[in-house]
Amino acid sequence: MRALLAAAAAAFCSVALAAGPDTVRVNTFPNAKALPFHAGIEQGIFAKRGLALELSFTENSTAQREGLAAGRFDVVHAAVDNAVAMADANKDVVIVTGGDNGMNEFFVQAGISSFSDLRGRTLIVDAPNTAYAIQAKKILRKHGLAEGVDYKVVPVGRGELRLKAMAGNKDYAAAILNLPFTIQAEQLGMKSLGNTVDMLGPYQANGAFAIRAWVEANGALLERYIAAYVESLRWVRRPGNRAACVAILMDKLKIPRDVAERSYAVLADPVRGFTPDARFDREGFRNLLALRAEIEGKGSARSAESYLDLGYYGRALATLPR
Fold first, then answer.
1. Residue 1 contacts by C-beta under 8 Å, 6 or more apart in sequence?
2. In 3D, which of 190, 196, 198 has the Cα closest to residue 173?
3. 177 is in which domain, residue-wise?
4. What are the φ/ψ torsions at residue 215 (nearest 5 degrees)?
5. What is the torsion angle, in degrees rounded to the nearest 10, for the CA atoms of residue 227, residue 232, residue 233 and residue 239?
6. Which of 114, 145, 190, 253 can bridge 185 by disulfide, Cβ–Cβ 3.0-4.6 Å?
7. Tens of pLDDT along 292-319?
8. How far apart are CA 81 and CA 296, in angstroms?
9. Number of domains composing the chain
10. The CATH number of the domain where 162 resides is what?
11. Binning pLDDT at 50, 70 and 90, where does residue 20 land?
12. Would you place residue 10 in the very low, low, confident or very high pLDDT band (cuts 50, 70, 90)?
């Protein structure tokens, strides 16, 4: 059956290529986790499935959510907490893949030695009410610090902008960062107080989501896209492609070789890095919903499953070799 499905998918891709590629508009963040997109484009993996990837990057998650709601993108890859926020705000969004646990660390300025030292200081975030900001608030709450009482929150945007803000203003005391910005922060003398998963438990961070109406109208296209993305992710995680991946990271992120090499080592790590085949972590998602309910008071009567439609992912995976 698997062989028949693969043959059917290959035949379908041949027809699609003959008719011209189908465009999928994808929006994500310009960090190291965008590597599968760059590699998939460069290696012709998306093109092989008759897809033209129109890849764009966002300044922050608020702009990304607004763009998806307005129909400027077809598929978004970001922290799936954003999909939950949209769904809870009556935007009919559905999560279609997993991706990773965030690869996040809680970074602070050089003079800070503990969480208690953040009393009276400023935490900078992407957007103040979703995803990694919620993680940061929970971590600080665990250490006895309350938002608006013991520290204040300032939104500055994506990871690159948070790093630049901390580098340029020592009053910005802390931020959640991921790759390659964790490595660059360390090189600038900042330090990590720990990995967020170690502090909070499993967490479903990055994943793909889209407006449900687009998903239902473009199911076959979405399955081809997911299959190409997973194939690109497999290519990235293959040890023999390490040098090529490092070169892509250097080129696309404009980072030196040592930062790219260290970033790739984490991305390819089977525990800390990309989740193999972008599988969805249901336990991590339940923890995400619990965090959201606790910190933001955004509890919902909806079931966890109501935010998901992983059937497209399952069918896409069935077209790929094991």
1. none
2. 190
3. 105-200
4. -60, -50
5. 140
6. 190
7. 999 988 667 789 999 999 999 999 999 9
8. 12
9. 2
10. 3.40.190.10
11. low
12. very low
DSSP type of residue 188: T
DSSP-assigned letter for residue 241: G
Looking at the structure, do residues 33 and 91 belong to the same domain, yes or no?
Answer: yes
Q: In what order do the strands lie in the sheet with 22-28?
A: 51-57, 22-28, 75-79, 206-211, 93-97
Residue-wise DSSP of 274-299: PPGGG---HHHHHHHHHHHHHHH---
Q: What is the pLDDT of residues 210-247, one digit of tens each?
A: 999 999 999 999 999 999 999 999 999 999 999 999 99
Per-residue pLDDT reduced to its tens digit, 46-79:
999 999 999 999 999 999 999 999 999 999 999 9
Same domain as 132, residue 71: no
**Residue tagged 């687009």 (tokens):** 214
Structural tokens at position 130: 């979703």
Ramachandran assignment for 90, one of left (phi > 0), alpha (psi -120 to 50 degrees), beta (any other): left
Q: Is the separation of the CB atoms in 233 and 226 below 8 Å?
A: no
User: Residues 83, 230: one domain?
Assistant: yes
Distance of CA 277 to the CA centre of its chain: 14
Same domain? For 218 and 313 the reply is yes
Q: Which of 200, 220, 245 is the last residue of a domain?
A: 200
Q: Exposed (0-12), middle (13-18) or buried (19+): which is 24, by Cβ within 10 Å? A: buried
C-alpha radius of gyration, the chain, whole number: 20
